[in-house]
Amino acid sequence: MLRQLVPERYLQSPEICEVIDAVQPELDRMQDAIDDVLAQFVLNTATWGLSMWERDYGIESNVSQSYEERRDHVRSKLRGAGTMNCDALEQIAAAYVAGRTEITEVPEKWLLRVAFVDVFGVPSNLEDLKAVLEEMRPAHLVLEYIVRYRLWKEVRQHTWGVLKAHTWKAVKEGEL
To answer: How far is it, in rounded angstroms, from Cα 150 to Cα 121?
Structure first.
């Protein structure tokens, strides 16, 4: 890169070329360090800087979780600012569940019903979602979770030859 910035007439000198070749690796390392620091300012690319994002949003850091799970926690806090209603809670849930989540209020039962519409079985990070929704929900409402499993009538179209290639867990949680 440095060679591109130096006038062509200087590149005729072997001494200048040696200096450029000696300095270039250090300049590359410096540029990589700068890029890494700048990446920490963007949530989608933050790695070692996630602990600062978590601190700023009052989240306890859990370094045993993947970067993506930790980013999901921060995203949910970002989305959770303001008035909490079903739409806002659905946006928070979207950061945790790979599929549509419907949250409906059942006022006569003082209840918020959380249904995983596009996901069969228990979502992989349900406990994290529960913790966030518990913190964000209106205090007078209780959370109820609806987990969807595949029904026999949905499996009936497949032969045993097809089904035996899968585990029972895979069949009931919709991995066909």
So the answer is: 8
Q: How many residues does the chain have?
A: 176
Contact at 8 Å (CB) between 16 and 10? yes
Closest to 59 measured CA to CA, from 72, 45, 42, 46 = 72
Q: What is the pLDDT of residues 36-85, one digit of tens each?
A: 999 999 999 999 999 999 999 888 899 999 999 999 889 888 876 666 78
Q: Would you list the domain boundaries of the chain?
A: 2-39, 99-172
Radius of gyration (C-alpha) of the chain in whole angstroms: 26
Q: What is the pLDDT of residue 8?
A: 93
DSSP 120: E
* Strand pairing class (111-120; 101-106): antiparallel
